[in-house]
Amino acid sequence: MKLRSSTVLLTGASGGIGHALAREFAARGARLLLNGRDSARLGTLSVELRNGGAEVNVLPADLTGIEGIERLAHAALSGGTPDLVVHCADSFSVGCLETTSADEISRLWQTNVIAPSLLTRALLPSLRKQGRGRIVFVGSIFGSLGLPMYATYSATKFALRGLAEALRRELDGSGIGITYVAPRCSHTQLDDRRPERGPAARTDKTTRVAVRIADAIERDRRELYFGFGERCFVRLNAWFPWLVDRSLRAQTRRMRKFEPAIAGPQH
Ligand SMILES: NC(=O)c1ccc[n+]([C@@H]2O[C@H](COP(=O)([O-])OP(=O)(O)OC[C@H]3O[C@@H](n4cnc5c(N)ncnc54)[C@H](OP(=O)(O)O)[C@@H]3O)[C@@H](O)[C@H]2O)c1
């Protein structure tokens, strides 16, 4: 699909990769519907994009509750059906499962899996009627490679990858395409909260990530994985998981330094 003159609903637009995506989509001539919770950040971004000639609407909503998701879907559909939906919002957490609070686990599942599922579900009848469109799920390399200290985040990204794969097959022949994107480390707030990077990890600039995602959309690609080393690790993990278990032992020991004493489940 071409981004020029397309209407794009983008969640996570107030975040690092979301900001870069909004700028890239605007530069390619798309109309934007920007979602996040931070209205001030979204407002500043929209002024910048409008000054550059883009058509932008800000649709702030908290995606941790059904009410926010339904409100966003309703607002997005009120001006017509979007051509492209990009699920970029996420919650992140790092630490042993035993020391992760129940609230944090729920928040991650809600933002990273339940919100994109429910928002897609709410938009699909209109997209089907339109007979064309694309839905992009921004996952992670951690969605193909379970890393110690990232159990909850990894689990949600595995689930998101499963959602994208199943939906691609479910929507076959409908005119609606699915793209699953797996970035590696980028310099954003999310990356700032990471005590140690994954195997073979290098960092991408968010602007570069955005250009590659926009190219993948315009080429109707089914998936996009970042990093040759990361892609190799994912393959190695699928074929020889015991080898990856062994190679990650040292990293797990190093990461434990960042973990407070494990004293049982927290509530
Ligand atoms: N950065 C990396 O190194 C990296 C690596 C691999 C994959 N990724 C993936 O890339 C995507 C973007 O990451 P990022 O680094 O740009 O993240 P980020 O800077 O932390 O931004 C997260 C975005 O999600 C939004 N968000 C969080 N909770 C929300 C909620 N309950 N309701 C609505 N919006 C909510 C935030 O909105 P507010 O700020 O307005 O609350 C913000 O716009 C994510 O899916 C992430 O998993 C990132």
From TrEMBL:
Q: Where is the signal peptide?
A: none
Q: Which Pfam families match?
A: adh_short
Report one GO cellular component.
membrane
Instruction: Fetch the SMART domains from UniProt.
Output: PKS_KR
Which residue range or ranges hold the Ketoreductase domain?
A: 6-188
Keyword terms, alphabetized = Oxidoreductase
Is Oxidoreductase there in the keyword field?
A: yes
Q: Which SUPFAM superfamilies does the record cross-reference, listed alphabetically?
A: NAD(P)-binding Rossmann-fold domains
Q: Which GO terms describe its molecular function?
A: oxidoreductase activity
Please indicate if the UniProt record lists Oxidoreductase as a keyword: yes
The record ties this protein, via NCBIfam families, to: PRK09072.1
Family statement drawn from the similarity comment of this UniProt entry = Belongs to the short-chain dehydrogenases/reductases (SDR) family.
Q: What's the protein here called?
A: SDR family oxidoreductase
Q: Which organism is it from?
A: Solimonas terrae
